[in-house]
Design brief:
It is built from 5 helices and no strands. It is mainly alpha-helical and 116 residues long.
Length: 116
C-alpha cells in the first residue's frame, strides 16, 4: 500500500511507437541517409523505403528496438517492388482522392430529435 491508502500501479512500457535513444550513434549514418532522402523527395517516404528499411534493420541489430519480421512493419515484397509509375496508377484508382473528396458530404441521416 502506498500513501493515502492507494495501491501501487505497475506501468508497462509501450510495445511499439517509442524507440530507445541512440546514445552511441550506432545508426546515425542510416538516419542521416533516410532524412536526406526525405528532403530530396519532398517528404514522400515511398521513395526512401530502402533507407528506412536499412535504418530499422540497424536499430534491430543494435538492440535499440525489438527484433521482428519486417513484413509486419509494412516491408513486404509487393510493396518493395512497386515502381513509381505503378504507385501513381494505384493512387489514381481511388476515386475519393482523384475527385477531391470532402468529408461528411456523403452522409445522409434523418434527425430523430426534433425540438420544434
Amino acid at each position: 500500500m502506498d500513501a493515502f491508502g492507494s495501491q501501487r500501479v505497475n506501468i508497462k512500457p509501450p510495445e511499439r511507437g517509442v524507440f530507445a535513444l541512440d546514445h552511441d550513434k550506432e545508426c546515425k549514418s542510416f538516419m542521416t541517409m533516410y532524412l536526406s532522402c526525405l528532403r530530396k523527395h519532398r517528404d514522400d517516404h515511398y521513395y526512401c523505403r530502402n533507407e528506412s528499411k536499412a535504418y530499422l534493420e540497424c536499430r534491430m541489430k543494435c538492440d535499440l528496438m525489438v527484433s521482428e519480421d519486417l513484413s509486419g512493419l509494412g516491408y513486404n515484397d509487393e510493396y518493395m517492388t512497386l515502381s513509381g509509375e505503378s504507385r501513381a496508377n494505384a493512387k489514381n484508382e481511388v476515386p475519393k482522392e482523384s475527385t477531391g473528396f470532402i468529408s461528411g458530404t456523403g452522409v445522409r441521416t434523418t434527425n430523430k430529435w426534433k425540438f420544434w
